[in-house]
Amino acid sequence: SLPIVAVVGRPNVGKSTFVNRIAHADDAIVHEMRGVTRDRSYHNADWRGVHFTLIDTGGIEMGDDDAFQSSIRDQAFMAADEADVILFMVDGKTGITADDEEVARVLRKVDTPVFLLVNKMDNPSKMEENWEFYSLGLGDPRSISSTHGHGTGDLLDEVVAIL
Ligand code: GDP
Ligand code: MG
């Protein structure tokens, strides 16, 4: 079976936009399970001849803060269990939130390799301005723009190199 790359992160950071840019069109297999936390869609993707399965993790349940944070943790643990590489996406426009920190806390402990993606860095001349995200403790932040495509090729080069 193909190597698995899972995209995780809080709602609205741009996970689905990224996946739809990278994945082959109209081939998603959506696994709808009880509780939206567990929803994920599986996509065929390849980069430079390396084929892999790309997982878009679905909505995280909104509710009281405790339920929300625990479903965020579940999502990260499930991805770590299932994936060969995790892409943890944050929003470069809004900066770090408490929910980002919660996911990071989980991902710092897993053995699965994690890339920290700073999305919505739409201005190519300001791609380097992502220093604040070093504080998440997950190595070098990789700036990308999922809508424009900046940075996604370099990132995928690094990802497929370790698949
Ligand atoms: P998800 O909830 O993490 O799957 O996020 P979506 O992919 O649904 O995107 C949430 C919103 O962010 C949408 O309005 C997207 O158009 C927007 N978005 C996604 N990627 C980018 C980006 O690179 N730049 C900007 N400016 N907006 C983006
Ligand atoms: Mg989505």
TrEMBL record:
Q: Where does GTP 1 bind?
A: 9-16, 56-60, 119-122
Q: Which domain of life is it from?
A: Bacteria
Q: Which residue ranges does the record assign to the EngA-type G domain?
A: 3-163
Q: Tell me, how does this one assemble?
A: Associates with the 50S ribosomal subunit.
Function statement: GTPase that plays an essential role in the late steps of ribosome biogenesis.
Q: Which family does it belong to?
A: Belongs to the TRAFAC class TrmE-Era-EngA-EngB-Septin-like GTPase superfamily. EngA (Der) GTPase family.
Name the record gives this protein: GTPase Der
Provide the species name.
Slackia heliotrinireducens (strain ATCC 29202 / DSM 20476 / NCTC 11029 / RHS 1)
**Boundaries of the shown chain within the full protein:** 2 to 164 of 438
